[in-house]
Amino acid sequence: MSRTVLAIGGHIGDMDLTAGPTLAKMILDGDRAIILACTYGERGHPRLSPDEYRVQKVREGEQFAADIGAEFRVLDYSDGFLPNSEEAADQIADIIRAQKPDILITHWTKSIHRDHERAAILAERARFLASLPVDSPLGRHSVDQFLHADNWEDAEGFVPDLYVPIPEEAFERWRAAIQNQAFARGETYGFRYIDYYTAMMAAKGCLVGTGRACGFVVGGSSKFKLAGP
Ligand SMILES: [Zn+2]
């Protein structure tokens, strides 16, 4: 049965990197994926102005999603200033009510980026709000699974308890798509994102006896459900 997965990141590109291989795998399996960035990530370039980089980030996010067969959305919040507000949580809850995802993927709860931590908090709050019987024309929806993706910037206390094998075709599709993002290529602050995540998938694959895998922490009440992506 086809499932819908919603990946919620702090900045455009975050979920592309961390959840992207799993999203590519799920799409190849016939599932539907939506990538939602809570901010544009427009302050992440040392030479481009935020106004210039915002335009580029949106284009890169749209392109990545199109390349792996996902849908792309971005909330209108500013990089570095994602509020931990009921309004922001309700915007995400409306997307959950309308799109009815089976799986949510977001950041880990500890990060060097406040936007990442807040995206994780907002995602959890939104999941709760969407499940409540409130007066919404979109109805209510409960999300079965809540997963935290592995990210080098969110490493504190992150111990995966779910490993998703990434087949070669999904890896190749992800790797071709992520090349189109300047930060992932190392053009902003020089971190070798693509090398890091490629190596991490191989390392995680070693742990579970497959070529490549992505590790997730299963969050909240999802711990008691067995099925994974
Ligand atoms: Zn980020």
UniProtKB/TrEMBL annotation:
Coiled coil, from the record: none
**Cross-referenced Pfam families, in alphabetical order?**
PIG-L
Sorted alphabetically, the Gene Ontology BP terms of this entry are: glycoside metabolic process
UniProt cross-references to InterPro entries, sorted A to Z:
GlcNAc_PI_deacetylase-related (IPR003737), LmbE-like_dom_sf (IPR024078)
Do the record's keywords include Zinc? yes
Q: Which UniProt keywords apply?
A: Zinc
The reply to whether tRNA-binding figures as a keyword in the UniProt entry is no
Output the SUPFAM superfamilies linked to this UniProt entry. LmbE-like (SSF102588)
Concerning Gene3D superfamilies, the annotation shows:
LmbE-like
Name of this chain's protein: LmbE family protein
Question: Which source organism?
Answer: Candidatus Lumbricidiphila eiseniae
